[in-house]
């Protein structure tokens, strides 16, 4: 349906300074977005199926994963930020037709990324027994949470390689391979989960082992495609010896550090949100966890468009094409908002069925569906925040956008959530979430309109 040769030709036109028609721009956005959307949705489906399989084990099993879920997302997002610091540089060098330096950055990313992920795995393993109690868990679910988190921590090197290889391929304009491998990972996850949860009867620990196995079996072909096969970034294409360049690492830190700090503080805010929800009981914990999982199925298309924005803005920025860079930013944001407005309607209409798929417990289903419908109204602005942030990161503008996201999360969402939870329970927490996402999307739209994220490209032009 979608032509790899066609998107490669259009990306080459960007690098070579050729003009693109309006139709070609939209075609390129669609060509790059659709595979990434499918990959994002498939990845969420993996967690969706995980949650459904565990959900049928009862509320305590569901709550045990929900308790540490925000922490696992936090750790994964930090590894994603590490990958981002290098992949943005790769996109800029590719846009400038300097493929040799793009591959040199890739080599540095492998060394630094693997070392950092091993360190994180050791930290996670050292705190796995205490973490559930720090998060407010009780003795009925803490041991299950602890076992799940330990296995996840040991999976982190594979998670890093998955993020890194996927980001590098996307920076080179290759969306199809990461998408197909993400779909494969989802299928493997279902198969391994069934084996470990039901056949071997390992319960919550089985869910973690299933996810670990899926990551390890997927990252091998993903690494092979990036390191050996891709026609731009494959390391075998280098004819010059590898030389360590501290500037690549410094630039990666400059890009990644604000993103990582944001992810840490945003993840910490999610943990605080879990602490706000925890006193409301196991039903509220499980409903909150399932609603987050179900909602992620609806906002992942926004991240798919964001991936396309990262590639297009990153390469046009590297090519020094200011007007085209701005044009792609506006177009991708508009497409993202339209797609997620549609997904918001789907989420509102099918909220009971989405939560019912995850849990047979009627009380959890009713509460989860109620909060999902509250969130549905904020989805277009959530898309604006997602894609606008991707645009800023692709241009290397990470500090102020990170500060904006943190202010929105900590000063708007958590403050409102704490106040409203006292009177309205979990509904109040999700009203706060919807309000904050609308606020965040609005301030990001204002930043894109003002154009300050493009200051660096003007110096090159």
From TrEMBL:
<dbReference type="InterPro" id="IPR002528">
    <property type="entry name" value="MATE_fam"/>
</dbReference>
<feature type="transmembrane region" description="Helical">
    <location>
        <begin position="370"/>
        <end position="391"/>
    </location>
</feature>
<dbReference type="InterPro" id="IPR050222">
    <property type="entry name" value="MATE_MdtK"/>
</dbReference>
<feature type="transmembrane region" description="Helical">
    <location>
        <begin position="106"/>
        <end position="127"/>
    </location>
</feature>
<keyword id="KW-0050">Antiport</keyword>
<feature type="transmembrane region" description="Helical">
    <location>
        <begin position="147"/>
        <end position="168"/>
    </location>
</feature>
<feature type="transmembrane region" description="Helical">
    <location>
        <begin position="403"/>
        <end position="421"/>
    </location>
</feature>
<feature type="transmembrane region" description="Helical">
    <location>
        <begin position="206"/>
        <end position="227"/>
    </location>
</feature>
<dbReference type="InterPro" id="IPR048279">
    <property type="entry name" value="MdtK-like"/>
</dbReference>
<keyword id="KW-0812">Transmembrane</keyword>
<feature type="transmembrane region" description="Helical">
    <location>
        <begin position="180"/>
        <end position="200"/>
    </location>
</feature>
<keyword id="KW-1003">Cell membrane</keyword>
<keyword id="KW-0813">Transport</keyword>
<protein>
    <recommendedName>
        <fullName>Multidrug-efflux transporter</fullName>
    </recommendedName>
</protein>
<keyword id="KW-0472">Membrane</keyword>
<feature type="transmembrane region" description="Helical">
    <location>
        <begin position="73"/>
        <end position="94"/>
    </location>
</feature>
<feature type="transmembrane region" description="Helical">
    <location>
        <begin position="44"/>
        <end position="67"/>
    </location>
</feature>
<dbReference type="Pfam" id="PF01554">
    <property type="entry name" value="MatE"/>
</dbReference>
<keyword id="KW-0406">Ion transport</keyword>
<keyword id="KW-1133">Transmembrane helix</keyword>
<feature type="transmembrane region" description="Helical">
    <location>
        <begin position="328"/>
        <end position="350"/>
    </location>
</feature>
């Amino acid at each position: 349906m979608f032509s790899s040769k066609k998107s490669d030709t259009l990306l080459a036109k960007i690098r070579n300074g050729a003009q693109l028609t309006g139709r070609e721009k939209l075609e390129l956005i669609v060509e790059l977005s659709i595979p990434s959307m499918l990959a994002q949705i498939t990845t969420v489906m993996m967690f969706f199926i995980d949650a459904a399989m565990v959900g049928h084990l009862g509320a305590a099993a569901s709550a045990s994963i929900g308790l540490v879920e925000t922490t696992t997302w936090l750790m994964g997002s930090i590894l994603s930020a590490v990958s981002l610091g290098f992949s943005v540089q790769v996109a800029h060098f590719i846009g400038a037709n300097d493929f040799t330096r793009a591959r040199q950055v890739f080599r540095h990313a492998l060394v630094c990324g693997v070392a950092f992920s091993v360190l994180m795995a050791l930290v996670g393993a050292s705190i796995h027994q205490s973490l559930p109690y720090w998060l407010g868990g009780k003795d009925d679910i803490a041991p299950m949470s602890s076992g799940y988190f330990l296995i996840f921590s040991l999976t982190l090197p594979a998670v890093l390689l998955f993020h890194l290889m996927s980001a590098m391929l996307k920076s080179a304009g290759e969306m199809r391979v990461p998408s197909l491998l993400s779909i494969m990972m989802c299928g493997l996850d279902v198969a391994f989960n069934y084996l470990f949860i039901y056949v071997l009867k390992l319960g919550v620990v089985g869910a973690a082992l299933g996810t670990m196995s899926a990551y390890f079996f997927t990252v091998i072909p993903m690494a092979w495609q990036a390191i050996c096969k891709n026609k731009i970034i494959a390391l075998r294409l280098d004819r010059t010896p590898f030389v360590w360049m501290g500037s690549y690492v410094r630039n990666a830190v400059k890009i990644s550090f604000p993103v990582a700090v944001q992810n840490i503080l945003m993840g910490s805010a999610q943990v605080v949100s879990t602490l706000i929800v925890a006193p409301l009981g196991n039903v509220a914990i499980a409903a909150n966890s399932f609603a987050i999982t179900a909602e992620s199925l609806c906002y992942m298309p926004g991240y798919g468009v964001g991936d396309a924005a990262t590639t297009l803005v990153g390469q046009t920025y590297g090519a020094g094409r200011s007007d085209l860079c701005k044009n792609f930013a506006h177009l991708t944001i508009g497409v993202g908002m339209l797609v997620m407005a549609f997904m918001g309607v789907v989420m509102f209409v099918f909220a009971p069925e989405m939560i019912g798929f995850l849990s047979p417990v009627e009380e959890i289903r009713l509460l989860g569906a109620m909060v999902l419908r509250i969130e549905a109204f904020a989805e277009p602005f959530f898309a604006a925040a997602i894609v606008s942030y991707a645009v800023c990161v692709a241009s290397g503008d990470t500090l102020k956008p990170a500060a904006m996201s943190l202010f929105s999360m900590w000063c708007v969402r958590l403050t409102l959530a704490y106040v409203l939870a006292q009177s309205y329970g979990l509904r109040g927490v999700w009203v706060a979430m919807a309000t904050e996402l609308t606020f965040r999307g609005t301030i990001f739209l204002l930043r894109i309109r003002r154009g300050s994220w493009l200051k660096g490209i003007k110096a090159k032009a």
